[in-house]
Specification:
23 strands, UDP-n-acetylglucosamine1-carboxyvinyl-transferase, Chain, 4-stranded mixed β-sheet, binds uridine-diphosphate-N-acetylglucosamine, elongated, single chain, alpha+beta
């Protein structure tokens, strides 16, 4: 097992290149299942979730290889073994994104009930019901979903999600791209990663468009072809580094992220007084907190995009520990996404759980080094952020979860001046 050893207190300075978005690339790899021609993805992040999905797709029988460093070439000619093993699904909930494309292209797949982050129950019932609306038959036995399409393939249908679901929206788009007839999705997700997936699918010959507020229409086609696509920048990684710059009172330029995707985050920066300059023309965000005034508190409530993302709720809490006054956090998307507060309290944060979904933070409080750890991607990054400003040395465990979604986080932080080492423990 590996750990990070971090000595806090160094302001971060310099430039950092933001990687391609985890939450886009995984769905794009799944989109490649829809064609027997090569799909080439660029700006693919070096994260372990990509490795897990690559191996999983190779087990099914697809050719997936990395070329030129940040490119992935996928060729899905046949699926001799249309089965997702429990081990892979336990590591990554996003493996369930193979349901739609496997059904659409090969007519069957067996998938386990997925695992992923340890944040609440995270059911997949919306995915299952939606596929049934497109004509699929899905039986659940002994922890596995056995899914099959009718002999003449999936058919278009109307799917209205009870609540907004990112991967549910994407799974239906992928399935419907090759279905007979037109599919309408209501209460669809608006995340920029969904739009980037739609752009890739358009390049493959699919007919997918947004035709109303939270409505997506897909006109199925008989066949899709190969395409080349550059994955958009990871707004969640960018937000993490922007917070790192702010809390360490640093001066950091983030390159490779579209500031238009950071709207709700930049609003929080405005409210708390984090100075920044966003430049959409060259995809940069410059956070300059060196001589900034004291930060102010904020009340934040997570919402589907374009609201405050649940994925940067935890990192934001570290900023709020340094704000002058009382802040509150309300997590509306997932249950159990406040477990990290216990670890932050060990480091000296004044953070109180009001109930399962609400926390109150009183600041500013100086943080101090501690041994902390948590089995969750964003909560793990949160502990690294806290360690960057904690007096003394912190040891952060559970970093294999951080590696799932952050490309070489410690190398990027070291390049900005941080004192952080990865050790074998
Ligand atoms: C995606 C992101 C994740 C992010 C989340 C919310 C990926 C790989 N992951 O996860 O980083 O935190 O969006 O922005 O893109 N739900 C059900 N039944 C379902 C599906 C969802 O009840 O079948 C519920 C969930 O428990 C949750 C809510 O719907 O309360 C939204 O979840 P969803 O948007 O589906 O999250 P993911 O797509 O899994």
């Amino acid at each position: 097992m590996q750990k990070f050893v971090v000595t806090g207190g160094v302001p971060l300075n310099g430039e950092v290149r933001i990687a391609g978005a985890k939450n886009a690339v995984l769905k794009m790899m799944a989109a490649a299942v829809l064609t027997d021609e090569p799909v080439i993805l660029r700006n693919v992040p070096r994260i372990s979730d990509v490795v897990i999905l690559r191996e999983l797709m190779a087990d099914i029988g697809f050719a997936v290889r990395r070329v030129n460093g940040d490119e992935l070439e996928i060729r899905a000619e046949e699926a001799p073994w249309p089965f997702v093993p429990l081990e892979a699904a336990m590591k990554m909930r996003a493996s369930f994104i193979l349901l739609g494309p496997m059904l659409a292209r090969f007519g069957r797949v067996i998938l386990p009930n997925p695992g992923g982050d340890r944040i609440g129950r995270r059911p997949v019932d919306y995915h299952v019901t939606a596929m049934e609306q497109l004509g699929a038959t899905i039986a659940y036995r002994n922890g596995y979903y056995f899914a099959s399409a009718p002999p003449d393939g999936l058919r278009g249908g109307h799917v209205e999600f009870p609540r907004v679901t990112v991967m549910g929206t994407e799974n239906v788009i992928l399935a419907a791209a090759l279905a007979r007839g037109t599919t309408v999705i209501d209460n669809a997700a608006l995340e920029p990663e969904v739009d980037d997936l739609i752009t890739l699918l358009g390049g493959m010959g699919a007919r997918v468009s947004r035709t109303g507020h939270r409505r997506v229409e897909i006109e199925g086609v008989a066949r899709l072809g190969g395409a080349e696509h550059r994955v958009l920048g990871d707004r969640l990684e960018a937000e993490t580094f922007a917070i790192a710059a702010a809390i360490t009172r640093g001066d950091v330029t983030l390159r490779g992220v579209d500031p238009a995707h950071l709207g709700s985050f930049l609003e929080v920066c405005d409210r708390t007084g984090v100075p920044y300059e966003a430049d959409a023309s060259d995809a940069t965000l410059h956070v300059r907190c060196r001589d900034a005034e004291p930060l102010g508190p904020a009340d934040v409530e997570t919402q589907p995009y374009p609201g405050i993302a649940t994925d940067y709720q935890a990192p934001l809490s570290v900023l709020l520990t340094q704000a002058d006054g009382v802040s509150t956090i309300h997590e509306t998307i997932f249950e159990d996404r406040l477990d990290y507060t216990r670890e932050l309290a060990k480091m000296g944060a004044s953070i109180e759980l009001l109930d399962e979904r609400r926390a109150r933070i009183t600041g500013p409080t100086p943080l101090h080094g501690a041994e902390v750890g948590i089995a969750d991607l964003r909560a793990g990054a949160t502990l690294v952020l806290a360690a960057l400003i904690a007096a003394g040395t912190s040891v952060v465990s559970g970093i294999e979860h951080v590696d799932r979604g952050y490309e070489q986080i410690e190398a990027k932080l070291v390049a900005l001046g941080a004192q952080i080492n990865r050790i074998e423990a």
